[in-house]
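Protein in question quoted for reference:
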Amino acid sequence: MYILNHIDNKDQNYLELSNSTTSFFAKICLRFGGSLQKLTLHENQIIKEFEPFNKEKPYASAILFPFTGRIRNGQYDFELESYQLEMDKENNTALHGFVYNKEFDLVDYELSEELVTVNLEHIEDKKNKGFPYNYSLLMTYKFTHESVITYVTIRNKDEYSFPFSLGWHPFFFSSSLYNSYLEIESDREIVFDNEMIPVKFQNNALKSQIQIKDLKLDDCYRLKNNSVRFITPDYTLNISSSSQENYLQVYTPADSKDCIAIELMTAPADSFNNKVGFKSLVPGEKYNISWKIALSKNN
């Protein structure tokens, strides 16, 4: 049977989910974007919590909304209006949207022998600098013994349309990144400038297994399908999206030798300006997406 424990005090607000029969464990941080900070499936550590937790930049496993990656100079135009977003202190861009440090409410949950479902919600009723719109974000985690599906529903609660792109930023653990692999099928790779802003696409016809070894990755690909595989010495993950158009950002952080970010997104960085994967949502309408992580044991 799955068990849910809610820890809520002045310092912390998170959920612990467990099932001793299947060696399952998950930790969801409600105070920082409802992010999935820990995940163990069948004794395999899939997502490892960063320690110490970076409260200034809690990007790990965050939902990226209303934009993915970076926005050049934090500036964009939409429907004949110009906007200035808040800037990241360390570079000349806006970064990863606004949801990663927002508190989510636990709406409800369901426990059974086979699965656990958790529904979270954040309602934005303030006018963020550079994005003066009201919206709600409903997030559902559905865990089984060998998978997790993250469902996200964005609803426009404003009187005006707004632009958006959407992604998920999980970091996956491997006992040996050197001996781990990514399987990607892509037809185009994005070339970035020094500020990690896309400047062009280049054809790559990539359909291969890439050994990570000592590679320092911060790369983005347009996928020909909706999935990617991550193969480690201990387990294999199939990571997929319900979106028809998908971009994959892969990133190896300099301060961690055993984690890699594998981010499926509806658009690459700076989509508010380059219009690649760009979407808009009219008042009262909603947009749905889901991402699935499925575990398969290595032989």
